[in-house]
Design goal:
heterodimer, A: alpha/beta, Aspartate Aminotransferase, domain 1, Aspartate Aminotransferase, domain 2, 2 domains, 7-stranded mixed β-sheet, 3-stranded antiparallel β-sheet, 13 helices, 15% strand, B: 479 residues, alpha/beta
Chain lengths: 439, 479
């Protein structure tokens, strides 16, 4: 039987005697007899060797594609070795939330550095220590904007489907109305938004690039939202953010996003990381942990969890959010990633993504039927093409060649290309697509 | 220690990405940002040393004793990290075709079945990423259930005043009104107060059992019955499940919905504040409302399905999957017999440490405790001026992570210890000697405790200054 209990049988007996009880059972006298010690219908414990083999067998039942052209909220970027090495340090992995600042400076400083990097990436004034993922970050951002006079939440229908549904779930709980702003030609419809905006609106959420990969004219949305007295939330891709006008430049009050592209593996959807940053006016409304700088009893610079008067353990039912555990190790991962890449590496990754995505789009476009679904739109590293054949037929053919193709969407296939996709992989994909189209 | 930005040298970098092998296509300039982000410019050796230095300024479970009450800081097995890093798990895209992710679906389905057996629930979701997220999810299930029955009057959630702060905060987020009821002095539910609080407006009760004073509420069956008879549902906060695995199941206690902290009870590492997993189990009444999607057996394999009355999603994709991989490895290693052995020894270790400390640190309540216990240093403070905070800080100098301080709120000068089952008798003996040494010193030399810690990388931080003039990011212009 597997066990991680170090005390021996003799020691346990000795400890029971010291406690003054005759048996383990006697420790549970307060548990009602009729429910005490149920028989669990599950196997007995096993050795490490056996469990390792069983989990490896499960992992082997999954297919890991050698080339991936699918994004849609989870992106296959290169992860530098140094990122994996330093974030695997046991001290970081096994520590709890840094309540005891004197023995948690390593984690506190890393989060302070992470907060600074997120501010730099987004152009915003303050960031928190992370939330669960991009979708919950959007939901928390919407909650930050609500007050007695502003309640309704507007969301672009070109935002990621999981963001839209998570915002809806959170808002339904709080009894808040959500309205979606429709999409036209792959872009959020600005005129429709202007028609919808009303006095009691709390905020509008725009994703940049949007779910279809299209770049929105974000600043125009910001201006429209502010003219109506609401707050402007932008959800941004952090790699694209290295190249695109910052949320601050576009007038955003809050910038959020899915941090997975910053050094986190695909991991079947998690753990990922939600980043959140905002303007100076709003920082006291940020949910969750925030690290701040101060000095210690010896006058040295040090870091602590701060502004805790906002949080659930102080405010209880009056807290604006219930979050406590977040994704600290993922935030550290993102920080190590950004530090390893540096400003040049981030810009290079962004440029490789854009160049290769446009290369695939133009190569696919050589074959009739694979036209861009939204030809007038600029895109970053994702785009939708129509297909001359049933999308599933093409995707199946790609899968047989160990390629994960794009995601089927309403207007065709949503393709994604990152710096990991080589010209050779892209040409091969195009070749297969041409064969399928001819067949 | 220098910040990473203070180590940056313009022009320095790591060679990570290849040259572009297709025609370079710049973005249309109207979309481009004005200035690049001021990220640090470092070589790989700079990075390695920076983070190694930071790691030296962190106390993890692998560094030493970590009896942080309510947090279940048990040892995190090395095997789990290896398994979570397998390309067959870490390299899988969440939107791959289902026939290419059968192993991932099997992990979710098997972990669900095993955890349902441990908790006495019907079905489980792994979508919530942490305990508080699980609470919100569970409460949204209760809300959807009452709404589905056409009962709009049930707007209140009852929470005892000994509860974790997340309970009332989650209830508010889910749009409920919170009714706080006072606890008995031992943190147990005051049955009369509960009877007075329930009614046709009761949506449910949130309860932690064992409670935050470390006691199993012996009236648990009456408590859940009172709520059920009033038409409400019972929510089990699984923060303290480590005391009762294989000993008592929340479902058998009368709970309708449970959240678990896989990063506590099921030994997945906490990562300095996450990622965790706040899995939510639902009984028969609430299972149809669980978030979508949910992995289930289908046609000899596994497939995602949407529960018939699903509340929707509370997070993108399927939760913190790699955390579930670790928890499954843990459960398979221990098995049913090992889980109850773990709980029994967690309770034994807590009672043993409590007995060793009792002459100097009186327990807040008498009798046997579960996996954690609370002491009160009220008298020590009165007699010597030494506070629970001083004692906690002095423990830092001994290489012990302090217990949870000043919680639960109903005990004055509280310290809450949870040693967990993965500490040996020698460690407990050693820790007790250190702590009683500190408590003896309180009378002889209180000043030395007010000044503690003195061997840590930094001294006590000025938290008031941090909150009064918040500095939440590095300022480049101060160079």
């Amino acid at each position: 039987m597997g066990s991680y209990i170090p005390s021996t049988g003799a020691q346990r007996e000795e400890m029971l005697r010291a406690v003054g009880v005759p048996s383990f059972e006697a420790l549970y006298a307060d548990v009602p007899q009729e429910i005490r010690f149920p028989e669990l219908k599950m196997g007995t414990g096993r050795s490490e060797l056996e469990v390792a083999a069983e989990l490896r067998a499960m992992a082997a039942k999954n297919h890991v594609f050698s080339s991936i052209f699918r994004g849609a909220g989870a992106y296959d970027h290169y992860i530098p070795s140094i990122v994996k090495r330093v974030t695997a340090k046991e001290e970081f992995v096994t520590a709890y939330t840094p309540y005891q600042a004197e023995i948690s400076q390593g984690i506190l400083q890393s989060i302070f550095e992470y907060q600074t990097m997120i501010c730099e990436l987004t152009g915003m004034d303050a960031a928190n220590a992370s939330v669960y993922d991009g979708a919950t970050a959007a939901a928390e951002a919407a909650a930050m904007c609500r007050d007695r006079r502003h309640s309704r939440v507007l969301v672009s229908a070109a935002a990621h489907p999981a963001v839209r549904s998570t915002v809806r779930t959170y808002c339904e709980g709080a009894g808040v109305e959500v309205a979606e702003v429709p999409v036209r030609d792959g872009r959020t419809d600005l005129e429709a938004l202007q028609g919808l905006l009303a006095a009691g609106d709390a905020c509008f959420y725009l994703q940049q690039p949007n779910f279809y990969g299209v770049l929105e004219d974000a600043a125009a949305f910001g201006a429209a939202v502010h003219a109506a007295g609401a707050k402007f939330i932008m959800g941004v891709d952090p790699i694209a953010a290295a190249a695109l006008a910052t949320p601050a430049e576009c007038g955003a009050d809050i910038a959020v996003g899915e941090g997975q592209p910053l050094g986190m593996p695909l991991s079947f959807g998690g753990p990922y990381l939600g980043f959140m940053a905002c303007t100076h006016e709003l920082f006291r409304k940020l949910p969750g942990r925030i690290v701040g700088e101060t000095t210690d009893s010896r006058g040295e610079r040090c870091f602590v969890l701060t502004l805790q008067a906002r949080e659930q353990h102080i405010r209880r039912e009056k807290a604006s959010s219930n979050i406590c555990s977040n994704e600290a190790l993922c935030a550290m991962t993102a920080a190590v990633y950004m530090a390893a890449m540096g400003p040049q590496g981030m810009a290079q990754a962004a440029q490789l993504c854009t160049s290769k995505a446009h290369y695939l789009a133009s190569r696919l476009g050589e074959t009739p039927g694979f036209e861009l679904a939204y030809p007038k739109a600029e895109f970053f590293h994702e785009f939708v093409t129509r297909t001359p054949v049933e999308p599933q037929r093409l995707l199946k053919a790609l899968e047989e060649q160990d390629i994960l193709g794009g995601l089927p969407v309403e207007d065709g296939i949503l393709w994604c290309v990152t710096e990991k996709n080589t010209k050779e992989q892209i040409d091969r994909l195009v070749e297969i697509a041409q064969e399928v189209a001819r067949a | 220690m220098k910040l990473i930005f203070e180590k940056s040298v313009p022009g320095r970098c790591c060679a990570l990405l290849p040259a572009c092998d297709v025609p370079v296509r710049p973005l249309e300039s109207r979309f481009a940002r004005k200035d690049p982000p001021r990220l640090p410019e470092l070589s790989e050796v700079d990075l390695s040393r920076h983070y190694t230095a930071l790691a030296g300024r962190v106390h993890g479970v692998n560094d030493g004793f970590y009896p942080l009450g309510s947090c279940t800081m048990k040892y995190n097995p090395a095997l789990h990290e290896e398994l979570a890093a397998l390309p067959g798990f870490a390299g899988v895209h969440p939107l791959q075709p289902q026939h290419t992710v059968q192993g991932c679906l099997e992990v979710l389905a098997r972990a669900e079945a095993l955890l349902c057996e441990v908790t006495g629930m019907e079905q489980m979701t792994f979508q919530p990423a942490a305990g508080a997220h699980g609470e919100l999810t569970g409460l949204l299930l209760i809300k959807a259930y009452h709404r589905d029955r056409g009962d709009a009057a049930r707007t209140k959630i009852i929470v005892p005043d000994s509860a974790h702060g997340t309970n009332p905060a989650s209830a508010s987020m889910a749009g409920f009104e919170v009714v706080n009821i006072p606890s008995a002095p031992d943190g147990c539910v005051d049955l009369e107060a509960l009877r007075a609080a329930v009614g046709p407006d009761t949506a449910g009760l949130m309860l932690t059992n064992p409670n935050t004073l470390g006691l199993f509420d012996r009236n648990i069956l009456q408590i859940t019955r009172i709520v059920h008879e009033a038409g409400g549902l019972n929510y089990y906060d699984g923060a303290n499940l480590n005391a009762v695995m294989g000993v008592a199941r929340p479902g058998d206690m009368g709970f309708d919905v449970v959240h678990l902290n896989l990063h506590k009870t099921f030994s997945t590492p906490h990562g300095g504040g996450g990622p965790g997993s706040g899995a939510v189990g639902a009984g028969a009444l609430l299972a149809p409302f669980l978030p979508a999607p949910r992995a289930a057996a289908a046609g000899g394999g596994y497939a995602f399905e949407t529960p018939p009355k699903s509340i929707g999603t509370v997070k993108a994709f399927y939760g913190n999957f790699l955390v579930v991989v670790r928890a499954l490895a843990y459960i398979l290693t221990l098995g049913g017999d090992g889980l109850s052995e773990a709980s029994e020894n967690a309770v034994l270790n807590a009672n043993y440490l409590k007995a060793l400390l009792a002459p100097y640190a009186p327990p807040a309540c008498a009798g046997v405790c579960m996996h954690e216990f609370v002491v009160t240093l009220e008298r020590l403070k009165k007699e010597t001026g030494v506070t629970a905070l001083d004692v906690a800080k002095a423990m830092l100098d001994c290489g012990i992570h302090p217990p949870t301080m000043y919680f639960p709120l109903i005990v004055h000068e509280a310290l809450m210890f949870e040693p967990t089952e993965t500490e040996s008798k020698e460690t407990l003996d050693w820790a007790a000697a250190q702590i009683t040494g500190i408590l003896r010193r309180a009378a002889e030399d209180p000043q030395s405790l007010h000044a503690a810690p003195c061997t840590t990388p930094v001294g006590r931080p000025d938290e008031v200054a941090a909150a009064r003039a918040p500095k939440l990011r590095y300022r480049f212009d101060t160079l």
